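Is S-adenosylmethionine placement plausible here? Inputs below.
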Amino acid sequence: MTSLRDRLHAQTGVLLDPASTPLGLREATIALAALGREAGGVDTLMDSPPASQGTWTANGMALGAVYAARCIVDVFRTTRFCAGLHDAVAAARQRFQGPIRLLYAGCGPYATLVLPLLTRCSPDELQITLLDLHPKTLRSATRLFEAVGAQDLLAEAVCDDATAWDPGARPPFHVGVCEALQAALGKEPHVAITHNLAPRLAPGGIWVPESIEVRAVLVDHAREDDHSLAAVGTDRGRVDFGVVYDLRAGGVDAGREVVVPGAEAWGDEAMLLTTIQVYGEHRLGPYDCGLTMPVRFPDGPAVLPGRTLRFHCDLSGKPGLRYEQA
Ligand SMILES: C[S@@+](CC[C@H](N)C(=O)[O-])C[C@H]1O[C@@H](n2cnc3c(N)ncnc32)[C@H](O)[C@@H]1O
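Reply from A.M.:
I modeled the complex. Tokens:
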């Protein structure tokens, strides 16, 4: 019988192979979800509390183990993040001596984003610290490391709030990764986690994703809602009125002002579009995954031609972008 480790290696090989088809990628993520269930014990189909229940923190909703596990089958999200993180670790190995210290904040029950690394790196090359708010989630992720024979790669499993966690006297991490995110930076505490942990990396360290940009656009619904293959990659006639927030590891974006275009450019509705620059060539654009679906504007003043709108990211309670008239 094929070992869990061999299955993991084969399926993550599909994720890393640029020649894989969308169907092949989909099958690989489903196979990895089955592996996570066998190894870690959290089932994506379970729907009973407490595993399905999330926690409202001061900076947003931390998904419970079941919903966090389900993220694995968001095919292009998982593929691009895994491939990007794999390349980021390879780049870090060129920059730093000794094992790369990798911090995985909000690791979820299957530690999904590090799965390809578990059979491709030795303990001399990589040491991983897992961090998650939920004990059940963290137990599942550590069991998975053991089940695939990667326990020597696990430096530490920390159960704490990543928006406030201080690594203290630990040597600085070379690479950090987090995906506790929803479209247009809403609901989950991704921004607060990035603000807390990205600045604590070693100088020259790499934070994944490298950046997340949200733009305001006017859309034409008929063109926007055409999901036929012929429409993929075509110009949907959006009227772009600029970046309203740009999350980067290196700095805190205070938000931006944009001017609503004149009436001659008017579309059906103003929406927010998210683009995630994961690492290097790996990025997620509108419609690629759940995290980059266009979303409606938050409640605020009427969006009228010529008005200047000032955006900021509210980190408290239910986080997200808000705006006012400038
Ligand atoms: C959207 S899930 C993603 C899971 C996994 N990283 C993946 O990519 O499939 C977010 C995870 O982050 C954890 N999380 C959210 N907010 C957190 C916080 N403030 N501190 C620690 N963990 C947090 C949740 O418990 C959950 O496991």
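Short version: The mean pLDDT is 93.
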